[in-house]
């Protein structure tokens, strides 16, 4: 008879196995279950073919998280399909200026306020291709400051929403569709009809008698112009030759005049120098005469003394004529 199994043994075995499993998860998982992570939702308008759960989430090429959930919702009210993509970001992968993990806030409301600053700075998500061979997609964050942010305002599990921009392929498709729409709006039939009318009128003008007459008249005018130019060339050639000879003679004359005028200019320059020196000497002489004729000059003073002496002599002579005896008796 077999021994009954002890339930405590089975329980202890299960508890030990569970403890070992938890320890293995913590050791080999690197403590991922204990890390605090942030979750956000993004609503992409593009097709999500190639985006899988677990796809990397990058910020300008650096992985900061993964895709955790991809859902599909049908909004019957607005007749549209909504594709919320939930991403999970590791805060330890993003550092602040001090080198510490970036803190976006503890509560959901605080995280919404802090993430709004990044959204105002141009932060947006975009789907990009990991490999052209596999066609797998990933979420790439970057700053698109020239593109205004577009938020749907939908509430998905009370998660903060991040804006998204269309992929490069979608942008090309949209631009091509706009061009095609503008082309479809053009009145192609009317344009073709008008072009056909223009071609018909052009053909009629080319085949008309008036154009043929005009072409003949133009050919005749060109022929007459050619004849006139030939005549002018023949008649003007001697005149141009004479003018050329006259120009050469004039040039020779100017050269001779330049050669002969050189000595004359030199002589003239010497004569002008001599005249200048003579004028300077005359100026000095005039200055000397003016100095002698000045009232305070010695010559002027000598003349005044001679005048006074002559006056005295005249007075003495007059006195002797009136009193001749004064020579004997003296002046009374």
Task: Provide a descriptive summary of the structure in words.
This protein is α+β, with helices and mostly antiparallel strands. The chain has a domain at 30-165. Helix content is 56%, strand content 14%. It contains seven helices and nine strands. It has helices at 7-28, 108-120, 168-185, 188-206, 209-292, 298-322, 326-329; strands spanning 38-43, 56-59, 62-70, 73-75, 80-82, 84-89, 123-129, 137-143, 161-162. It has a seven-stranded mixed beta sheet. A two-stranded antiparallel ribbon has the order 4-5. Strand 4 and strand 5 (80-82) form a beta hairpin. The longest helix has 84 residues, at 209-292. The protein starts with 6 loop residues before the first helix and ends with a helix.
Q: SSE layout and pairings?
A:
Elements: H1 7-28, E1 38-43, E2 56-59, E3 62-70, E4 73-75, E5 80-82, E6 84-89, H2 108-120, E7 123-129, E8 137-143, E9 161-162, H3 168-185, H4 188-206, H5 209-292, H6 298-322, H7 326-329
Parallel strand pairs: 1-9, 2-8
Antiparallel strand pairs: 1-6, 2-3, 3-6, 4-5, 7-8
What would the keywords be for this entry?
single chain, 332 residues, alpha+beta, two-stranded antiparallel sheet
- Give the overall shape: elongated
**What share of residues are in beta strands?**
5-15%
Oligomer: single chain
Terminal Cα span: 208 Å
Number of helices: 7
What Rg do the Cα atoms give?
A: 61 Å
- Order of helical and strand elements: HEEEEEEHEEEHHHHH
Largest sheet: 7 strands, mixed
């Amino acid at each position: 008879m077999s021994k009954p199994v002890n339930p405590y043994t089975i329980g202890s075995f299960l508890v030990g196995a569970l403890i070992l499993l938890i320890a293995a998860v913590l050791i080999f998982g690197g403590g991922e279950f204990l890390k605090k992570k942030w979750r956000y939702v993004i609503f992409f308008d593009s097709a999500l073919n190639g985006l899988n759960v677990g796809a990397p989430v990058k910020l300008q090429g650096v992985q900061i998280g993964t895709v955790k959930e991809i859902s599909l919702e049908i909004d019957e009210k607005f007749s549209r399909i909504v594709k919320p993509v939930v991403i999970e970001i590791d805060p330890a992968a993003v550092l602040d200026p001090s080198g510490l993990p970036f803190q976006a806030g503890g509560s959901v409301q605080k995280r919404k306020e802090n993430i709004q600053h990044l959204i105002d700075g141009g932060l947006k998500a975009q789907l990009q291709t990991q490999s052209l061979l596999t066609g797998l997609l990933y979420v790439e964050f970057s700053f698109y400051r020239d593109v205004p942010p577009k938020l749907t305002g939908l509430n998905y599990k009370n998660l903060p929403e991040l804006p998204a921009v269309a992929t490069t392929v979608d942008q090309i498709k949209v631009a091509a569709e706009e061009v095609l729409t503008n082309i479809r709006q053009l009145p192609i039939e009317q344009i073709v009809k008008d072009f056909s009318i223009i071609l018909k009128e052009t053909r009629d003008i080319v085949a008309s008698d008036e154009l043929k007459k005009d072409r003949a008249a133009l050919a005749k005018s060109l022929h007459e112009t050619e004849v006139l130019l030939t005549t002018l060339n023949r008649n003007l050639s001697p005149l141009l030759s004479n003018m050329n000879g006259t120009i050469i003679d004039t040039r020779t004359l100017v050269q001779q005049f330049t050669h002969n005028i050189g000595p004359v200019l030199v002589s003239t320059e010497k004569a002008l120098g001599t005249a200048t020196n003579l004028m300077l000497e005359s100026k000095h002489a005039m200055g000397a005469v003016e100095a002698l004729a000045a009232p305070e000059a010695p010559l002027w003073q000598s003349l005044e003394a001679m005048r006074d002496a002559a006056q005295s002599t005249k007075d003495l002579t007059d006195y002797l004529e009136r009193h001749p005896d004064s020579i004997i008796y003296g002046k009374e």
